[in-house]
Amino acid sequence: MPTYIIYDRKDGRILQTHREYYMGADETSELEHSEILELIKDSLPKGCEPAVAAIDEFRPQRGYHDYIDLDTGELIRVEAPPKEEEPA
Asked: What is the secondary structure of 35-80 as a DSSP string?
């Protein structure tokens, strides 16, 4: 069952993820996208334009940046640029 990715439809930036489980269930439950947005609306940043994508498997990985491609609606993973070290 899906993990729901809530992203900003202006730039594809992932705002948060959501999974819904029924008590005692091993699998996540499916929800309507409007239900998800209603559940999390108060925790979203002001000025964003939220949208929801359902992803079968989502596991963030250190050293990579994830976002939603606005043309295809697919999750894209790219290697994150190295962080600049601060001068001593």
From this structure: HHHHHHGGGSPTT--EEEEEES-----TTEEEEE-TTT--EEEEEP
